[in-house]
Amino acid sequence: MTVGDTTSGSGEEPAADSSVHATPHHEVDHTVEPTDDPLAIRLEALILGADRRYTPFQAARTAGVSMDLASRFWRAMGFADIGQAKALTEADVLALRRLAGLVEAGLLSEPMAIQVARSTGQTTARLAEWQIDSFLEGLTEPPEPGMTRTEVTYPLVELLLPELQEFLVYVWRRQLAAATGRVVQAADDEEMVDRRLAVGFADLVGFTRLTRRLEEELGELVESFETTAADLVAAHGGRLIKTLGDEVLFAADDAGTAAEIALRLIEAMSQDETMPALRVGIAFGTVTTRMGDVFGTTVNLASRLTSIAPKDAVLVDGAFAKELVRHGEAPESEAQAAEAVAAAAERVRLAEKEGREPDDEPPLPTYRFGLQPMWQRPVRGLGVVEPWLLARRGKTGS
Which of 83, 95, 390, 397 could make an SS bond with 314 (beta carbons 3.0 to 4.6 A apart)? Predict the structure, then answer.
């Protein structure tokens, strides 16, 4: 729903443009007036909360925003160019006024305001598509013979809309609180932007071949994988960054959390006979975060490790392995773990021989994970790396 770039500095409204611009798949095309479908008109008015009143030029002028800035805001939100069709409402005017007001007040720079519009537009576009494709489609199944789906849709949307809106705001506030807490606890100002995180990719093996054999089942398989991954990542303290059909990207503040998530993903998928094998790669290091995504060498290394990981296995980099050792989550080596067990056993043997209780010694360490060094290998664009194979273990020596 963005305007064209046909305005001049004269302040006069440009002539109406009936041409329809090409609409990328992620944008929303509001160029068609739904005059021939009363239900569509009613549904749109219900969802938008207002009637179409303004052309883009009129909306920008009413909001007190330049046409150029209005265009950039709308494009960032993912709305298609509509020329000068009368397709905008009071809500569109208010949204422009609010974004521009944040810039004028100095709370956001103009590039930051564009980022806010883009991140919100991309996130909610996917949410809306998912809800229409999966949620409403199932709920609008006609309950009685002779009823049409459209007859069910309006009252259902009327009931759901306020509830879903409140729920969306609630979830957003909770996520914003969690994200803010993580940032303000950073060690210094630099770490608030470039943070040290564990980043992992989980990838379904042979997914491309699978798509050639499956059609109807493919969507269910992907949804099951993404749902399982999202639930496990959240439940164990990680953050799901994004899903890519056959792959998920997650992050965690510490190596132990990421290791637990990775192994649970492997365990969960291996128990599902309908799922292909899974492989996971994790790296630890400095990560740049932007618009909910993560970037940098650490992310690239995690991706490369995933591509060379064996089936149903987790590969980690050396920095990740060191983090596990540093926090007592894994032994430096199995030999070290065996020595600790042997020393503890010897203390017990001597105490029993002398007829006394064992001396107060540091408790035998409990390691959650084991690490096995793999062959060093060159990784494209990252030089030579030494991967470590991550496994679960119980107490030392078990």
Answer: 390
Q: Are 188 and 286 in contact (CB under 8 A)?
A: no
The pLDDT tens digits for 144-193 are 676 676 677 788 888 888 898 899 999 889 888 887 776 676 555 555 55
Q: Nearest to residue 205, comparing CAs of 271, 280, 273?
A: 280
How far, in Å, CA of 316 to CA of 379, rounded?
13
DSSP class per residue in 276-327: PPEEEEEEEEEEEEETTEEESHHHHHHHHHHHHPPTTEEEE-HHHHHHHHHT
Q: What residues contact residue 389 under an 8 Å CB cut-off, 6+ apart?
A: 310, 313, 314, 315, 371, 372, 373, 374
Is the CB of residue 213 less than 8 Å from the CB of residue 205?
A: no
Report the C-alpha gap between 193 and 186 in whole angstroms: 9
Q: Which amino acid is at 46?
A: L
321 burial level (CB within 10 Å; 0-12, 13-18, 19+): buried
Alpha-carbon distances of 176 from 253, 352, 366, rounded to whole Å: 17, 58, 35
10 Å CB burial of residue 90 (0-12, 13-18, 19+) is middle
Kindly report, residue by residue over 239-248, the tens digit of the pLDDT: 999 888 789 9
Identify whether the C-beta of residue 123 lies closer than 8 Å to the C-beta of residue 26: no
Cβ proximity of 371 and 335 under 8 Å: no
